[in-house]
Amino acid sequence: MRxxxxxxxxxxxxxIAIAEVVATCFYAGYVPRAPGTxxxxxxxxxxxxxxxxxxxxxxxxGLFVLAVLGPAVWAANVLxxxxxxxxxxxxxxxxxxxxxxxxxxxxxxxxWTYGAALLLFRLFDIWKPxxxxxxxxxxGGFGVVMDxxxxxxYAAFVLYIMRNFFLLPL
Length: 170
Known about the structure:
By secondary structure, the chain is mostly helical. The chain has one domain. It contains seven helices and no strands. The chain has helices at about 15-25, 35-55, 60-85, 95-100, 110-125, 130-135, 140-165. Helix 1 (about 15-25) crosses helix 3 (about 60-85). The mean pLDDT is about 90.
């Protein structure tokens, strides 16, 4: 059973409920261990499903990230205020979006791409090389989301190098 978001301020129950669904990606962020990895796995599953059944390509994922960026930052901000924490672990919408950035330009028909994108994205998300760590310090939900988008860009760049210069099937 998932833990409820504690209320630090009154009112807006529906707003908080919607923000919780968005920010936790339908409660995937409540996985007890490694919620960030759970969010990234939700991202991989969503990428696969959208590619296979809605015929999403790299450009579609880029447009999807742009379309969802505003609601993701809003939802993260709502949960940050409600929980009174700078970056609650149960916010995983940033991992989903970062994972989508990671596969942009990759071969989505190769099963190797999904595993490599997941590993690379999580590596950069945890390691936080410059400027990922710097972006994380931006205020509120914007910082929560932007550092993962940058980690996704790093992963996408490495996948691009591996695919085009080392001729790996990614």
